[in-house]
Write a structure and sequence with these properties.
The protein has 415 residues and is mainly α. It has 2 domains: 202 residues, Up-down Bundle (Growth Hormone, Chain: A), CATH 1.20.1250.20; 201 residues, Growth Hormone, Chain: A. Helix 11 runs antiparallel to helix 14 and helix 11 packs antiparallel against helix 16. The longest helix has 32 residues. It starts with 8 loop residues before the first helix and ends with a helix.
């Protein structure tokens, strides 16, 4: 199989980066492009937010059907779950290309997007599970870096990108292009084997229901599992808080729309560079140490922003804040690559879908509570107090990294 990308390190980086581009592209289309077009078409804001909130639910609840992927892995393989999900993702989008003026049919649009979200969330779980079981553990940092780069590019291309260049192109035509991208990504999965050669000596997947339950009981009994969940739900408080208030903050600082657009583009470049750098560093330094260093970098950047906006002045404040926020997104890219690799290390391969999706659910919970807290505190005490508080709270996750590292070392040491 000449295009079996999973056989080489570069091939694996391309494979999983492309799969995450296929994952990020629909997110950009649904969460960035469509809301703007729906609003331009006259849909009320509350109806738009209700729609996007509803299609978020499958991503929140994906852990509930993730065990099906683990239990059936020995019979069907995780690749087949990815292929089935990507096929159905494309099929659910085709009606958008066939129906004239699809944005005017709200019930149809809601049904299509909700079904699409279910398959997209399933694809996400299966890709992560495949990476955990099929890629050498020593490459997980680099693989996660490639994944995040693909996701960021996909989101931008089918979100902000199409808004910039699409002009009068309809949502249906863009949906059709998205279908083509999804199915081209699926072709790489068809041509790839199940495992990298370095993992071929490992035991094949044996995830029948009984074995799955044994693995689940073992995972629940491990201190590292609970430490990892606690870390996931707290560590991102600083960058999630800044991300939640970034748009309003830049507006309040007096930046024009084109300056804000430039900021988001610079932030994207910073995240791409951070993801590549952070993944590589975490493979060399170790996950816990790398994640800790990047977390401190993020917290200092957020506190720097808080210091700048404590008493906003005009241009000097805006320029300093702008630069520090871009630095924060560089740290964010590094931290995501390192921390997601850490979560993969903590995941039992027998529970690749279930356990890793639980960690991702915890990071989503962090995004929710930190964003809500940041807005509430900012409304009462200002941006400076809000960002300082949330950045300081994120640093309470550092001792958890120490405990996680010790727990992993204790498990590996002979008894």
């Amino acid at each position: 199989m000449p295009l079996d990308l999973i056989r080489t390190r570069r091939g694996r980086l391309l494979l999983f980066g492309t799969l995450y581009l296929c994952e990020g592209a629909p997110i950009g289309f649904v969460w960035w492009f469509l809301p703007a077009r729906l609003r331009a078409a006259g849909m009320p804001v509350d109806s738009i937010t209700a729609l996007t909130a509803a299609v978020t639910l499958p991503w929140v609840l994906k852990f509930t059907w993730a065990p099906l992927i683990d239990i059936s892995a020995s019979r069907f393989g995780r690749r087949h779950w990815i292929l089935a999900a990507q096929l159905c993702m494309g099929l659910t989008l085709i009606p958008l290309a066939l129906v004239e003026q699809p944005l005017q049919h709200q019930t149809l649009l809601f049904t299509i997007l909700l079904a699409h979200a279910v398959f997209a969330a399933t694809q996400d779980v299966a890709i992560d599970s495949w990476a955990i079981g099929g890629v050498p553990a020593a490459e997980r940092g680099a693989i996660n870096g490639a994944m995040q780069i693909g996701k960021f590019i996909g989101r931008w291309l089918f979100g902000a990108g199409v808004l910039l260049i699409a002009g009068d192109i309809g949502a249906g035509a863009i949906a059709l292009v998205l279908v083509v991208v999804l199915w081209l990504g699926a072709s790489l999965v068809v041509l790839s084997g199940d495992r990298a050669p370095e993992t071929a000596a490992e035991a094949p997947d044996d995830t029948a229901a009984g074995t799955f339950l044994d693995g689940l009981r073992a995972a629940l009994a491990r201190p590292a599992t609970w430490l990892g969940l606690s870390f996931a739900v707290t560590a991102g408080a600083g960058f999630e808080a800044l991300g939640a208030v970034a748009g309003p903050l830049l507006v309040d600082l007096g930046l024009a729309e084109h300056s804000i657009a430039t900021f988001y583009s610079a932030s994207l470049v910073a995240m791409l560079a951070g993801a590549a750098l952070g993944g590589s560093i975490s493979d060399r330094w170790g996950r816990a140490r790398s994640a800790g260093v990047f977390l401190v970098f993020i917290a200092l950047s957020v506190i720097g922003v808080a210091w700048c906006v404590r008493d906003p002045g005009p241009e000097a404040t805006a320029g300093s804040t702008y630069s520090l926020m871009v630095m924060m997104y560089l740290g964010y890219g590094m931290f995501i690559a390192a921390s997601y690799a850490l979560f993969m290390d903590l995941t039992d391969p027998r529970l690749g879908a279930t356990q890793f999706s639980a960690y991702m659910g915890a990071t989503n919970a962090c995004e929710a509570w930190a964003g809500f807290a940041a807005g509430s505190v900012a409304a009462r005490f200002g941006y400076g107090a809000s960002l300082t508080t949330l950045a300081a709270l994120s640093l309470f996750a550092l001792p958890l990294l120490v405990l996680i590292h010790r727990s992993i070392m204790a498990e590996r040491s002979p008894h």
